[in-house]
From TrEMBL:
It comes from Halopiger xanaduensis (strain DSM 18323 / JCM 14033 / SH-6). The keyword Chaperone does not apply. Keywords: Hydrolase, Metal-binding, Zinc. It comes from the Archaea. SMART domains: Lactamase_B (SM00849). Its cofactor is Zn(2+). Residues 13-173 form the Metallo-beta-lactamase domain. This is Beta-lactamase domain protein. It holds the Pfam family Lactamase_B. One of its GO terms (molecular function) is metal ion binding. SUPFAM superfamilies: Metallo-hydrolase/oxidoreductase (SSF56281).
């Protein structure tokens, strides 16, 4: 089961996905709300890790509160990033278990250098972080480390891995997409070229 713990938060935060199953994890930690209380309210038992799509503040500001409260380890792309305690690096094309499924980590810079997307061929789920969003929106490239050409390459790389059987797109902001999510990623590739 995948639950967005930030779904109704009226503050500047990323989405925070609680992925329950054989290895229950949190995808991103969010910011500016009491995620610890929301984890306790939604989870009967423990979880094992926080897995980061990237380290922008809106995705990691709650991280210390989560690790203090639950004593879990943090997984991300680059353990050398200052100010974020990443215990385990996830390599490009490495696999990580989220819930009941193995996901392939795809290094997808352009929004931020340490950005990862996570894709499970079975059951065709994509955690896209801030690479792409609903309705063809895509990650901003006007921040430090942002680069539009690199972002387009990253979107195209994801498009090469997924197909029209994609069942869910869980983005870092906005709603998850379960109605033809592949089309939203494809549209983001086109829109990024036009902007």
């Amino acid at each position: 089961m995948i639950t967005n713990l930030a779904a109704d938060v009226q503050a500047f935060t990323s989405n925070v996905f609680l992925v329950e199953g054989e290895r229950t994890v949190l995808v991103d930690a969010g910011a500016n709300f009491d995620v610890v209380d929301r984890i306790r309210s939604n989870l009967d038992g423990d979880f094992e890790a926080v897995v980061l799509t990237h380290t922008h503040p809106d995705h990691v500001d709650n991280l210390e509160a989560v690790t203090d409260a639950f004593d879990v380890e943090v997984w991300g792309y680059d353990a050398a990033i200052e100010g974020v305690a990443i215990d385990h690096e996830i390599a490009d094309e490495g696999t990580v278990q989220l819930g009941d499924h193995e996901y392939v980590a795809l290094h997808t810079p352009g929004h931020k250098d340490d950005h990862l997307c996570f894709y499970a061929p079975e059951p065709e789920i994509l955690f896209a972080g801030d690479l792409v969003f609903q309705n063809g929106s895509f990650g901003r490239t006007d921040l430090e480390e942002g680069d539009r050409a690199t972002l387009i390459e990253s979107i195209d790389r994801v498009l090469e891995r997924i197909d029209e059987d994609l069942t869910a797109l869980h983005a870092g902001h906005g709603p998850s997409v379960t109605d033809e999510p592949y089309d939203h990623v494809e549209l983001a590739s086109r829109m990024a070229r036009q902007a």
